[in-house]
Amino acid sequence: MSVEDTASSPRPGNRRIDRVLAEDYLEGLQGLPLADVRSLRAGAEQEEVDLSYLRRMIQGRLDILRAELNRRDGTGNPDLVQGLAAILADEPRAPARGLGRHTTMEPSRADSHRRYVEALVADVDLSDVSARSTDELAHALRTLSEEESGLSAKRRQVQQVMDACGAEITRRYRDGEADVDTLLGQQPGRSGS
User: Fold this and answer.
1) Please, how many CA atoms are within 13 Å of residue 147, restricted to the half-sphere of its CB?
2) Is the model's pLDDT at 157 over the cut of 90?
3) Is the residue at 99 inside a domain?
4) Which of 40, 140, 161, 189 has the fewest Cβ atoms surrounding its Cβ within 10 A?
5) Is residue 14 classed as helix, strand or coil in its secondary structure?
6) Domain tally for the chain?
7) H-helix or E-strand containing 166?
8) CA gap 138, 110 in Å, rounded
């Protein structure tokens, strides 16, 4: 079965996340052509990038909500707008649990991710959090926290799929089933000898 067959085969859900996390996504991985294994990995990598982007958007909104709630209880900066740069600074939020992955991919659905996050707390306009009640902010904080937690769990599952594909690719090179010289010869701008 090729990746094209996998992508178009009938199964519950048509979203990439549904395909990547489907039980049969990695079915027969060892028997697939190397190009198909790489394609499966690329699909999972793109989903991981999208989930990471979505998580960062939610985390930024969580930071704003927490800062406003802290301002209200006297433990935070008295001027939310003045402290916004520090609030949204890209600093570690907790000890890193991730795998330190580096990717050059961009999120594929940035606009739809933004709309999705806005819809999660549509009743709380984050452009003027001071106009909202503490209860409204606390509710938005809970909603976004639950969503961030769910996204984190899905992201870890997607990373397991990426790891399985990567391990299969590594195995093929280690066991001599794939040839590094062939890979290098296929890179753009390089002529094969």
Assistant:
1) 23
2) yes
3) no
4) 189
5) coil
6) 1
7) helix 134-174
8) 26
- Diameter of the chain by CA atoms? 70
Report pLDDT digits (tens) over 112-129. Answer: 777 877 777 776 777 778
CB environment 103-127: b (16+ within 10 A), e (fewer): eeeebeeeeebeeebeebbeebebe
104 within some domain: no
Q: What is the DSSP string of 57-74?
A: HHHHHHHHHHHHHHHHTT
pLDDT tens, position by position, 163-180: 999 999 999 999 988 877
Chain length of the chain: 193
Q: Round to whole Å and give the CA distance between 123 and 121.
A: 5
Structural domain containing residue 160: 3-88+123-183
Residue 128 lies in a domain: yes
Compute the CA torsion angle 97, 103, 109, 112 (nearest 10 deg).
30
Half-sphere exposure at residue 100, Cβ-oriented, CA atoms within 13 angstroms: 2
Residue 100 lies in a domain: no
